[in-house]
Amino acid sequence: MTDELIEWADHIFVMERAHRAKIQSKHRVALKDTRIAVLGIPDEYRFMDPALIHILETKMRRWLPDT
Question: Whole-prediction pTM value?
Answer without folding.
Answer: 0.83
